[in-house]
Amino acid sequence: MVIGMTAFSQEVIQAVLTHMNDDHNDDCLLIARAFGYPDATEAKMVGLDTNSGTWRVVNPAGEHQLRVEWPCGVISERAEIRREIVALYEEACKKTGTAPRGSETASSENPHAGGYSAPHGHHGGGNHGGAHHGHPGKKQPAPLPDDAPFSAVVRHRSWGFHSDSEGASFMADIMRGQAPLQDYIDLVAQHYYMYAALEEVTTLLAQEDATRPFISEELLRMSALEADLEHLIGDDWREKIAPVPAVTEYTNRIRKCGAEGYLPGIVAHHYTRYLGDLSGGQMIARRMRKQHGFEHAGVEFYEFNSIPDLDAFKNEYRANLDALGETLDAAGHERFLDEVRMAYEFNTAVFNDLAAVKAEAVTRATRRHATL
Ligand code: HEM
Fold this sequence. Notes:
By secondary structure, the protein is mainly alpha-helical. The chain has helices at 10-23, 25-34, 78-96, 103-106, 150-167, 169-175, 181-202, 222-233, 237-240, 245-259, 263-278, 280-292, 310-326, 330-371; strands spanning 42-48, 52-59, 62-69. It is globular and about 60 Å long.
């Protein structure tokens, strides 16, 4: 058995998502309202795996990610996806007091009469489910008020890309505790290259008043990464790690922002990584501590011991983003947002590269085994 592989191909997932969003958008909304966002105004299905479905939900407070576990537990067959979505829909009807469509949803014979069969996809191929990869005729997220602070705009308009990153199977498997320790080690090694570039260019932020506040000693991660890698791999870790192609492209981009003196661009990369480490990163660390028994060494990267209150720090960070936003015009805002989205896409690409390297290693091992 291969541990940590997702049971569904990208093509199947994409086909289900397209079908749900094109043909069952109202039902997505009903599920969102039933499972945590009673005031949802929009819901788009953005991911699924063997444990759960994921929706990007918009309500008056902004965009949210909603993950709902399949009612029957872990699934592995394509046909079970439909069954579980129907079950979720029926549960949502019960919770919201909505009359179910009856035979329409129950009928597996007639998948085009309102049911949830995954169409045999011509929709596959793309690996994005983000809010900004628009589809003609699809509603866009509800606009933020005109006076929304820049930090809220950034979060709101990049959240779909966050969902893509978080939902990449390599990452999702780690979070579900379904990945071997080696996956985590491989990820830490890629972080080493990312932060080497990021912390190198961060010093440039001292050049301007609006970007200087982002320089924070407490955030620096390189020594924690070195300690983690030594713990996870051994003294010779430097000879044993290598960048995947996407991390090389990512770090080239970060260094390019530095070389061009595009300071807001450096902040965009800084924001995407560090605010993530202070948020979802903490969940990853908890999962790794639980699964692999790390106490300190191995997850030092996620420990921000000189920040006593992470939420207060994040709020201060957002206030700095708001202040930076004040110094940029509309085009500057858009350019910043593009850089954030690009940063998310690079992170997703790193996960995908790591998954590919892993798949290749499994294939090689299987071939070796077969020739013995
Ligand atoms: C297992 C993977 C992940 C999980 C579970 C996760 C979860 C979360 C959660 C719950 C928040 C909201 C925290 C809050 O409101 O304070 C958040 C925020 C954030 N995450 Fe993630 N995340 C994951 C992966 C990533 C990745 C790969 C990146 C990019 C490198 C990232 C970047 C961010 C950023 C920048 C924020 C702050 C958004 C803002 O408030 O402006 N996350 N994450």
